[in-house]
Write a structure and sequence with these properties.
Elements (H helix, E strand, L loop, with lengths): L1 E4 L3 E7 L5 E8 L2 E2 L7 E2 L1 H19 L10 E4 L4 E5 L4 E5 L7 H19 L8 H11 L1 H6 E5 L1 H10 L3 E3 H6 L12 H6 L11 E3 L4 E4 L2 H7 L6 E3 L2 E2 H8 L8 E5 L3 E7 L10 E6 L2 E8 L4 H12 L7 H10 L9 E3 L14 E3 L7 H25 L7 E4 L8 H9 L3 E4 L4 H13 L6 H8 L2 E5 L6 H23 L2
Parallel strand pairs: 1-6, 6-14, 10-11, 15-21, 21-22
Antiparallel strand pairs: 1-2, 2-3, 4-5, 7-8, 7-9, 12-13, 15-16, 16-18, 17-18, 19-20, 22-23
Helix pairs in contact: 9-14, 11-12, 12-13, 14-15
């Protein structure tokens, strides 16, 4: 069984040993915005939804719970999930949160280079230690109550097993491990201003290591068999890449999800302060990532606010894809900046449509939105290339990969072939592959991937579109630069 816990949706998916999906159940949770820039969730609701998703998945599969060999969970990286000394939730901050912008800037000014030298990251607003520093400064009473710091999937693992653990991929991805050895480091905590936070850090495990077993209480709540092994789990960008067939050095994964994830695997992390982060998930297993919250969340916002409008549209994403397919690309099409949740270049960045004329239709707006998301992925990819991280093909995953029009736009816009995996739930599948390794079903991630993943579609770049996208990408960047002073005014 693979569990995939995103910023809102929790999914439970059962696969056979060939990677074919047997059953799946998903539940959408609620985020709250108690203040501008604050994005939080109720952790008790997250666990309740996980229980329903797991139980319903088992029931719909018609299997005995004892047939589940092992469980792997993947979860969104960063954010902050704090428990008190008894294991009760204190606060759940999601990775779309921007409250830590000022703290990140202060930490960056004071210790950015020293931090990067240790963890290969500089502070940013929704980074876990930045948020913990924000809590320490702004909510001292809550900080004093804190007993354990977890990431999203760690909280679910804790409720399943009673074990307080995190894995190396998530903890390195959030900047809390010394790289490349992926170890806790007191000097690193000191640089974050968190010298007293060492007792909050949970036991560190390998992602595919069995971190615990389903407890009797969790078995009653979920329908799982007591004693079922649960592995440490994954930073979801790693598991999604594995579920789309990518894990070996030199292979690339582009995830068109809530975040714009652009990542290339390697046997050693790239040391370059222009690259957003590097995460480690085993000996000589690293992924180099440049990313920001600028991807398919923009389309989700458009659908929610302008297409569904009360839930009356039977196929809102189908409607969007159909409108885009009607448009013949032109030089004077509108442009869109996908900065609804800020940018890696600045939390103050904002989204916007530009250059709309009276003859433009909804299809033009939606095409501009999809193109703007692709352009931001391209910007991240160019950052990786400048750092020496190159690739000649990529696996596309995430919700955007299921569009009939977006994958070809990516192939044309970045001018490399892209493929889309057969599995739609790549994050859950990657976690299940890891569970197979932990349970001894597969000896390596590569053998698990070979057994459980397949390509469903491939897209070759159209050379005739290269000049079109090159010109529009330069205009996109010029417009971004022109808007910077306006955004900086707040």
């Amino acid at each position: 069984m693979g569990l995939d816990a995103g910023n809102t949706v929790i999914k439970a998916v059962l696969f056979d040993l060939e990677g074919r999906q047997i059953a799946m159940h998903a539940l959408d949770g609620r985020s709250s915005t108690p203040q501008p820039g604050h994005v939080e969730r109720d952790l008790n609701e997250l666990w309740a939804n996980a229980c329903v998703a797991i139980r319903t998945c088992i029931e719909s599969a018609g299997i005995e719970p004892s047939q589940i060999a092992a469980i792997g969970c993947a979860g969104h990286g960063n954010g902050l999930y704090l428990l008190d000394g008894s294991g009760a939730p204190l606060i759940g901050i999601q990775s779309l949160d921007t409250r830590g912008q000022r703290v990140a800037a202060e930490l960056g000014d004071a210790s950015g280079d020293a931090l990067h030298a240790l963890c290969l990251q500089k502070p940013w607003s929704a980074q876990t230690p930045t948020l913990l520093a924000w809590v320490r400064q702004n909510l001292p009473e809550l900080y004093a109550e804190a007993g354990t710091l977890l990431l999203c999937k760690d909280f679910i693992n804790f409720r399943l097993t009673g074990e307080l653990t995190s894995d190396s991929s998530d903890m390195s991805g959030c900047g809390l491990l010394r790289m490349p050895d992926c170890a806790y480091d007191d000097t690193l905590l000191d640089l974050y201003g968190l010298s007293d936070a060492r007792p909050l850090l949970p036991r560190l495990v390998d992602p595919s290591e069995i971190a615990g077993r389903v407890s009797a209480g969790a078995a009653d709540q979920t329908g799982l068999a007591e004693g079922t092994p649960v592995i440490g789990g994954f930073f979801d960008v790693v598991s999604s890449a594995m579920g789309s067939g990518v894990v070996a050095p030199g292979e690339a994964s582009i995830i068109v999800g809530t975040w714009s994830i652009n990542q290339v695997f390697s046997s050693a992390p790239v040391v370059n302060d222009s690259v957003f982060m590097a995460a480690g998930f085993g000996p000589e297993r690293f992924v180099n990532i440049d990313s920001s919250a600028t991807s398919a969340a923009n389309l989700e916002w458009y659908v929610r606010e302008f297409v569904e409008r009360g839930g009356h549209h039977p196929d809102p994403f189908g409607h969007c894809n159909a409108r885009v397919a009607e448009v013949v690309p032109a030089e004077d099409d509108p442009l869109f900046h996908p900065f609804l949740y800020g940018s890696g270049e600045g939390a103050e960045f904002r989204a916007g449509f530009y250059g709309i004329a009276g003859w433009h239709t909804e299809g033009h707006l939606l095409r501009a939105l999809m193109e703007g998301v692709m352009f931001e992925h391209r910007r991240h990819i160019e950052t990786l290339k400048r750092a020496g991280v190159c690739f000649d093909h990529a696996a596309l995953s995430g919700g955007g990969s299921r569009s009939p029009v977006w994958p070809q736009m990516f192939a044309d816009g970045i001018q490399v072939p892209v493929c889309v995996a057969e599995a739609q739930e790549t994050g859950a599948l990657g976690a299940a592959i890891g569970a197979g390794v932990g349970a001894g079903i597969f000896d390596t991630y590569e053998s698990g991937i070979a057994a459980m993943t397949r390509v469903s579609a491939s897209y070759k770049p159209d050379p005739a579109m290269a000049a079109h996208y090159e010109a529009r990408y330069r205009r996109y960047l010029d417009l971004r630069d022109a808007m910077r002073p306006f955004w900086a005014r707040g």
